[in-house]
Amino acid sequence: MKQKRKLVTEIPGPRSRALWERRTRAVPAAVGTTLPIFVQRAQGGIVEDVDGNRLIDLGSGIAVVNVGHAHPAVVEAIAQQAANFVHTCFQVTPYEGYVAVCEQLAARTPGNHEKRSVLVNSGAEAVENAVKIARAATGRPAVIAFDQAFHGRTLLGLSLTAKVVPYKKSFGPYAPEIYRAPFSYPFRGTGRLAETLEWIEASVDVSQIACVVVEPIAGEGGFVVPEPRWLEGIAQWCRSNGVVFVADEVQTGFGRTGAWFASEHEGVVPDLVATAKGLGGGMPIAGVTGRAEIMDAVHAGGLGSTFGGNPVSCAAALAAIDVIEKEQLVERAQMLGNRMLERLVALQHDTTGIGDVRGRGAMVAIELVNDDGTPDAERAKRVCADCHTQGVIVLTAGTSGNVVRLLPPLVLDESLLDEGLDALEKAVRG
Ligand code: PLZ
């Protein structure tokens, strides 16, 4: 498919609007929609809708298609595996693909220690399993999560997640023994390391803490990059206190930030790493990878799932990992990121209302604020909607909803990225 933006109708066009009518009668409004175009095809960095519009994708299906939409190597791997067998359940009769993905996870995640992995279906499930494993390994109940955190929509995932509307509202009660500490937020000057550690020690009996669950960069929370050494400080504190350090690399993983995993930027080696999204190149698969002694502390049969590490998803994951390596997408993420930061910092200086430009690699965001520095969520919404009308997919984020985030596929042509940034610039300038 030609890697070119093309608008042939208004956005959304008549066919998408007709499907939207059907959708409203079949799907509850509880399932949100960023942009109500219905997709017909997607390849590389372009999404084509049912009206024939072709949009530049700066969202990657929320950081999933790092290798681009429908990468030929991934599609081929899926087709071949599907022709051989689609499902057996690894716990019933195992297959090589699952083991091979776990070997890849061991090789790619930070640290040279011996590792084991368990494969599941989604980011939420990965985080939940990480907590289960940490509890089993330590015999302790408490879990530390953070402001700005997003860890999924299952009940434990939501218990760990910070934002109330739309995620948590109406759905409680939540799991006990979860304590929310301040996350480092340099733009707002909150959550310095000492403050965070003091908060933890004052709020929880440290001897009862099983794990700290942290995103190296808060994703849904607004691409908040903690201050330098914050993550390292938390990891060190965990080590000193027998607390398992769990990195939620669901959104930051697989090249996204210009490293295989974002923890690497801080030289941090997590005890457990939760992965999902980019792992499968578009197929649903997730994992928990961790120190052998922690993973092996769980009793036989304690972990599993019917579909976890589905053979087709495993084949896709192996292909996607290979593509990231062969096409040097980690390096490409850095290049795309630098390009975005440069443009957006210039825009920040040349306009009003962009309080902060931040990110790492191809995970970049602008935080929109009012004159008094308070979050401007309305403007973020308007900017996104304007980009969508121009045929560029961008997403919002932020606990206050005032962040516009960019997560292009790592294969995106520079010229398409520039075109996308032109649209964003136009939208910001209004
Ligand atoms: N951990 C860091 O970013 C998913 C959420 C989309 P699942 N982020 C996108 C939505 O509206 O629900 C995410 C994440 C981090 C965990 C998760 C959860 O991953 O695969 O969506 O369960």
Characterization of the model:
This protein has 2 domains: 14-70 and 328-429, Aspartate Aminotransferase, domain 1 (Alpha-Beta Complex); 73-326, 3-Layer(aba) Sandwich (Aspartate Aminotransferase, domain 2). A hairpin with a 2-residue loop joins strand 11 and strand 12. It has helices at 14-26, 60-63, 72-84, 96-108, 123-138, 155-160, 164-168, 193-203, 230-240, 292-295, 311-326, 329-349, 377-389, 414-429, and strands spanning 39-43, 46-49, 54-57, 115-120, 142-146, 178-181, 209-214, 244-248, 272-275, 286-291, 354-360, 363-368, 392-393, 395-397, 403-406. The chain is built from 14 helices and 15 strands. The longest helix is centred in the C-terminal third of the chain and has 21 residues, at 329-349. The chain starts with 13 loop residues before the first helix and ends with a helix. Helix 3 runs antiparallel to helix 11 (311-326), helix 4 runs parallel beside helix 11 and helix 12 packs parallel to helix 14. It is an alpha/beta fold and 430 residues long. 53% of the residues are buried. The strands form 3 sheets. It has a 7-stranded mixed β-sheet with strand order 4-10-9-8-7-5-6, sandwiched between helices. Strands 1-2-3-13 form a 4-stranded mixed β-sheet. The protein has a 4-stranded antiparallel β-sheet with strand order 11-12-15-14. The chain binds ligand PLZ. Residues 62, 122-124, 127, 150-153, 215, 219-220, 248, 250-251, 276 line the site of ligand PLZ.
